[in-house]
Amino acid sequence: MAPAVPLAVLALVALVAPGLGVAPGCDYPAHRWCSSRDVAAACQVQGRCPTLPSPAAAPVELGLYYESLCPACREFLVLKLFPTWLLLPEEMLNITLVPYGNAQERNVSGKLDFQCQHGPEECLGNMMEACLMHEAKNFSTYFPVIFCLESGTSVTKNLEACLQLYAPEVDSSRVTACVQGDTGVALMHHNAQVTEALDPPHQYVPWITVNGKHTDELQAQAEASLLGLVCLLYQGEKPEICGSSKAPKFPSGCRR
């Protein structure tokens, strides 16, 4: 006796392929037609597969253009951005950090030189964080270290301690070599180009972009409640943490 065919499969075949025909481009047996979105699309049965998983929503893209010693930048990164990143699932928020801010790039006798709003110490901090990103590569590895640097008493003197605490697998000597060599200069040149290419041009820091855009409204919303803004914009299934919350006011940004 032939094995019984599930009624659900028979019903699907009857609805989709009358006369037991196969949908054009479908090379899968009927019992697999609803196994994934790709298979359902190939077999032209998406509308008859109620159990298909929802497509993954794109993360909210947030860009932070900042400088290492700007008080307002440090406040935003430490008190808003880092906690929001910790609270939300990884797939909800994608963060790009660009340490450069209101710095100026000059060509002095064929060599690039940088002048920063808060002096040479800030240029060192910017380059140190850029080199840290370059060496660590993984955002979840370097962001806690940058949080540690920005929340401490000195951005430039606590690298070793912050690495030991948050990313002991990263060799501090490689970060130092980057800062002291051509790689650090190249990274800062890249950050200068990215910052200067902003449209509209940045007028202060922190300068925040959301999904590639900057408006006064988005900036104000991000500073008032970054968590709420990300939850509002994310198109996928939202976690319980998403909800309204009041946030502290931040000091005025570091204007050019």
TrEMBL record:
The keyword Secreted applies. PANTHER family: GAMMA-INTERFERON INDUCIBLE LYSOSOMAL THIOL REDUCTASE GILT, GAMMA-INTERFERON-INDUCIBLE LYSOSOMAL THIOL REDUCTASE. It is found in: Secreted; Lysosome. Belongs to the GILT family. GO terms for cellular component: extracellular region; lysosome. GO terms for molecular function: oxidoreductase activity, acting on a sulfur group of donors, disulfide as acceptor. Lysosomal thiol reductase that can reduce protein disulfide bonds. Facilitates the complete unfolding of proteins destined for lysosomal degradation. Plays an important role in antigen processing. Lysosomal thiol reductase that can reduce protein disulfide bonds. May facilitate the complete unfolding of proteins destined for lysosomal degradation. Plays an important role in antigen processing. Facilitates the generation of MHC class II-restricted epitodes from disulfide bond-containing antigen by the endocytic reduction of disulfide bonds. Also facilitates MHC class I-restricted recognition of exogenous antigens containing disulfide bonds by CD8+ T-cells or crosspresentation. The gene is Ifi30. Residues 1-21 form the signal peptide. One of its GO terms (biological process) is immune system process. Pfam families: GILT. This is Gamma-interferon-inducible lysosomal thiol reductase. InterPro entries: Interferon-induced_GILT (IPR004911). Its EC number is 1.8.-.-. Keywords: Disulfide bond, Glycoprotein, Immunity, Lysosome, Oxidoreductase, Redox-active center, Secreted, Signal. Dimer; disulfide-linked.
